[in-house]
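Weekly modeling sync, notes
Attendees: S.R. (lead), two postdocs, one rotation student

Agenda item 3: backlog of single-chain predictions. S.R. asked that every request posted to the team notebook include the full sequence so nobody has to chase files. The rotation student volunteered to paste the first one in as an example of the format we agreed on. Action items at the bottom.

Example entry:
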Amino acid sequence: MKDLLSFDTLVTPKILTLIYWLGLVAVVISGVVTFFTSLFAGSLKGMAGGLLWILLGGLIVRLYCELLIVVFKMNEALQEIRKK
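Predicted structure, as returned to the notebook:
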């Protein structure tokens, strides 16, 4: 409890997993909605855009979360060095 109150233990890396999954679900839902909206409108560009959004959006969410995790891993490594 003392580590948590003094910010020695970070909560954000645990929350990033939840953020990743919520972001991935949002990307897939928006891509599927775009795909089917374009399907009913008869737009092939929109359908391709929906599929592309699912692929690229998922990749973007993953990269963003991985970059944030790298920052927290660097913090952990620096804390270990400091303790030595």
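Discussion: group reviewed the output briefly. The helical segments are 2-5, 12-41, 44-83.
Action items: rotation student to repeat for the remaining queue; S.R. to check formatting next week.
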